[in-house]
Design brief:
CBS-domain; alpha/beta; four-stranded mixed sheet; 36% helix; five-stranded mixed sheet; 11 helices; 26% strand; Double Stranded RNA Binding Domain
């Protein structure tokens, strides 16, 4: 689906709210909550972006002395000559909700991810794709009886923002990281002398997950799924097949499908998110991914089209790794992991991804055998 893309139209740019990096974060929370993100400046220069996810993930640490500068993330900039496919690529690699738009070396506004997703629909960039082609699988699930702290720790360790909630193997709903944070920071209700105060540590996810999540059939078109996400202002839908949840489709999956097909990726293994410290390990990381690639390619009827690895190093010196492997008609395998050792975390993540794909291979083989026995009969 390689094609020529025009530059971003000026009407893609939305007005932004600007704050100084030295201002207190609490002063910007109402604006961030209302608009989703703000632009942070320092000495009249672009310093970074603070979006609502930073607030939801860090509210417990917020106090009156916290400055905006400590929460700002310096995201890639869009410019006058940025093409639409390049913008899609930057939204995909940065995983941002908004990106700053620069003109004449000055930030004049922001471009929202929602605007780019609407452009993808209007340009018919995904009209030939089916949900099953790009959905993420397997589904990561927790039982309704799982405790909130354990589920939160599980999501943090595996670097995921949402899990499917099940009961006796049946999908009941979906739980997002934001649901957990909202529950954690909620104002406790006043209780009488004889009442028992709420104890979050003993509360199960059953009390906070979202029931009746939006779903779509695995054989539907991707643009129908994206249209649903835009209309409902959600970033994911569960994918069903014969009333069984078989995957999840996110806006990131959609962006990745465009990036992959547009030819903007340099090769079939892409590593992004590296900082000055982790950059020196890029060749070793690539070697390990290539070894995994070669092993998977030996599986019958399993073809690897693309591998992406996002590496994020925190100030606490731990690492967040997230890997996605495109298997053509077999869908996308996605896993994440956190740890304090880069090489050990990568090794564990590679094993997890490899074992998941191996299981897919075994299922394909068993189906083939079953069909063979049926034909013999």
């Amino acid at each position: 689906m390689k094609q020529a893309f025009e530059v971003l139209p000026k009407d893609f740019v939305s007005e932004a709210s600007y704050f100084n990096h030295s201002q207190e974060l609490t002063s910007a929370i109402p604006t961030i909550t209302k608009s989703g993100a703000i632009v942070v400046m320092k000495d009249k220069e672009y310093y970074g972006i603070v979006d609502d996810r930073a607030i939801y993930r860090s509210t417990q640490k917020i106090n009156k002395n916290v400055k905006l500068g400590s929460f700002a993330v310096k995201l890639p900039q869009l410019e006058d000559q940025t093409s639409i496919d390049k913008a899609i690529y930057l939204f995909y690699t940065s995983q941002a909700k908004v990106l700053p738009y620069i003109s004449n070396n000055k930030v004049i506004g922001i471009v929202k991810r929602e605007t780019i997703l609407k452009a993808i629909l209007s340009l018919h960039l995904i009209s030939k794709l089916r949900v099953k082609d790009i959905m993420s699988s397997p589904v990561i699930a927790v039982d309704t009886s799982s405790s909130i702290p354990n589920t939160k720790a599980f999501m943090q360790k595996n670097k995921i923002n949402r899990v499917v909630v099940t009961s006796n193997g049946r999908t009941e709903g979906i739980l997002t990281y934001r649901d957990i944070i909202n529950n954690t920071i909620r104002t406790p209700k006043k209780h009488t002398k004889n009442s028992i105060p709420d104890n979050t540590n003993k509360t199960s996810v059953e009390s906070i997950y979202s029931q009746n999540p939006f779903t779509i059939n695995y054989n539907e078109r991707v643009d129908d799924a994206l249209r649903l996400m835009i209309e409902k202002n959600i970033s994911s839908v569960l994918v069903n097949r014969s009333d069984k949840t078989v995957g999840i489709l996110t806006t990131k999956d959609v962006l990745e499908s465009i990036v992959k097909s547009s030819g903007i990726l340099p090769d079939n293994i892409v590593i992004f998110g590296l900082d000055t410290y982790t950059k020196e390990y890029e060749s070793e990381i690539r070697d390990e991914l290539e070894k995994m690639y070669d092993k998977i390619e030996k599986f019958h009827k399993i073809n690897v089209e693309h591998i992406s690895l996002n590496v994020k190093r925190h100030k606490s010196k731990n690492y967040e790794l997230h890997m996605r492997v495109w298997l053509g008609k077999r869908g996308v395998v996605s896993h994440g992991l956190t740890g304090f050792s880069l090489d050990k975390t990568l090794s564990e993540l590679i094993k997890t991804v490899y074992d998941t794909i191996k299981k897919k291979k075994e299922i394909i083989y068993m189906k083939k055998e079953a069909i063979g026995r049926y034909n013999e009969e």
